Stress response protein nhaX (Elysia marginata), 113 residues
Amino acid sequence: MPITATSDELAGEKERTDEIQRTLEQKLTQHQLKGSVKRMASSNPGHALVKEAERENVSMIVIGCRGHGTLRRTVMGSVSSYILHHSHVPVLIHPHHHHHHHHQQKQQHTTSE
């Protein structure tokens, strides 16, 4: 299936990623952490991130995780899983808040029945 995007969609995506990058850079400064926020384009993002971490000689990789189900992760792959298994430095995987909140609601609903 071909993927198409209009220039407006691409511009909107760039604005969103610019804002995310600024927010993350501000958080580093706010918490007096040494680090950097980089954008990379790759057909294999896990591999690209591990290689970039090696080039930059980082001491730790912090990455988010959306928590996709086992089937989807098996079929699509997981960037965080790839990094966890291929990195030569410690990896901190932080779950996506929306998914975490949704998961908690499902658990509460199940236990209240």
